[in-house]
């Protein structure tokens, strides 16, 4: 476990552009976070014109009322945040949830697969409240690796290269979740840093006590039949719950996404080139304003 924990701590120190670190600091203070993780496509590209992806982990409980009740059952909360740094406006999609829930989700204890599938992939810890939070986050990311690698052992081939197990895992999790991923998306993920994934699989199996045989560049997990059968039963239950949970989150986001109108306007302008000017009414009622925005985009394209 110590080897895995040390490797994860190193991975979390991935260097990113100083503007992204500055944005993470502002958002941490704005949302009262105790730790901020950065992940996603901009972690790979450094493109500040893209949408930044942050996870803000908090110490407090969800707020009271309807929003808090929904948040306790359908985490994380999603918001669209903007941070101005000099002449540059950075935009971010921010997921917020309690650190304790994040840590438990990483172990695979919940039916939800979101946390451990996302955070077995690269991320960077950009802001922390203190050493205790840094340790808790590193432990949670290590748990994500163990959970993901455990399922990879039964969803992957009988024997194969390390990346074969990760490919199988990502394909299955994409099928389980309510997501539309292009074929080969798992290859794009693994191509970013294949050596990282190859190392991580064996470290996670070692930490979890998964027996395996190594021959040349191939691995063969040697799980007992009853252990394999138990993991497959657990996976099938996760699979059944995947799409309903994701659909519920989409409904939640449609009504409770903070900054939904600004996020929608950003997406429309980025993908169509048509600027969207938001009125105070549209800010308050993004769903009702959507038909008018779509009409404007259609008319602008027709004129062009």
Describe the structure.
The chain has 304 residues and is an alpha+beta fold. The longest helix is centred in the last third of the chain and has 32 residues, at 225-256. Helix content is 60%, strand content 15%. The strands form 2 sheets. The chain has a 5-stranded mixed beta sheet, sandwiched between helices. A two-stranded antiparallel sheet has the order 6-7. Helix 7 packs across helix 8.
**Helix-strand makeup class:** alpha+beta
Mean pLDDT: 86
Largest sheet, strands/sense/barrel:
5 strands, mixed
**Low-pLDDT regions:** none
Query: Could you give the count of β-strands?
Result: 7
Estimated radius of gyration: 21 Å
Number of helices: 14
Indicate the proportion of strand residues.
15-25%
Strand order of the largest sheet: 3-4-2-1-5
Termini gap: 59 Å
Topology, please?
Elements: H1 2-11, H2 18-30, E1 35-39, H3 41-45, E2 52-58, H4 65-73, E3 77-85, E4 88-98, H5 99-106, H6 114-119, E5 123-128, H7 131-155, H8 162-176, H9 185-191, H10 194-208, E6 212-215, E7 218-221, H11 225-256, H12 260-272, H13 280-284, H14 286-303
Helix pairs in contact: 1-7, 1-10, 5-7, 7-8, 7-10, 7-11, 8-9, 8-10, 8-11, 12-14
Defining traits:
304 residues, five-stranded mixed sheet, 14 helices, two-stranded antiparallel ribbon, alpha+beta
In a few lines, what is going on in this structure?
The protein is of the alpha+beta class and 304 residues long. Helix content is 60%, strand content 15%. The mean pLDDT is 86.
């Amino acid at each position: 476990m110590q080897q895995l924990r040390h490797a994860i701590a190193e991975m979390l120190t991935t260097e990113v552009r100083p503007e992204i670190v500055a944005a993470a600091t502002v958002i941490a203070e704005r949302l009262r976070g105790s730790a901020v993780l950065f992940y996603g496509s901009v972690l790979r590209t450094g493109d500040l014109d893209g949408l930044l992806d942050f996870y803000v982990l908090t110490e407090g409980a969800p707020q009271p009322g309807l929003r808090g009740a929904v948040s306790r059952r359908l985490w994380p909360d999603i918001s669209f945040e903007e941070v101005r740094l000099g002449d540059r406006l950075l935009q971010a999609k921010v997921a917020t949830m309690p650190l304790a829930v994040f840590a438990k989700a990483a172990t695979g204890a919940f039916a939800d697969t979101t946390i451990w599938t996302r955070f077995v992939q690269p991320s960077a810890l950009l802001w922390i409240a203190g050493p205790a939070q840094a340790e808790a986050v590193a432990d949670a990311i290590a748990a994500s690796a163990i959970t993901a690698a455990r399922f990879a052992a039964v969803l992957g081939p009988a024997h194969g290269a390390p990346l074969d197990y990760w490919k199988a895992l990502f394909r299955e999790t994409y099928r389980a979740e309510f997501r539309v991923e292009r074929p080969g998306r798992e290859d794009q993920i693994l191509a970013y840093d294949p050596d990282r994934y190859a190392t991580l699989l064996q470290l996670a199996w070692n930490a979890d006590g998964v027996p395996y045989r190594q021959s040349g560049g191939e691995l063969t997990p040697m799980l007992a039949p009853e252990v394999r059968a138990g993991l497959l039963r657990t996976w099938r239950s996760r699979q059944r719950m995947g799409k309903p949970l994701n659909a519920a989150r989409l409904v939640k986001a449609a009504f409770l996404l903070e900054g939904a109108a600004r996020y929608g306007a950003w997406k429309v302008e980025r993908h169509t080139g048509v600027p969207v000017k938001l009125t105070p009414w549209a800010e308050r009622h993004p769903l009702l304003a959507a038909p008018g925005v779509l009409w404007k985009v259609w008319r602008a394209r027709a004129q062009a």
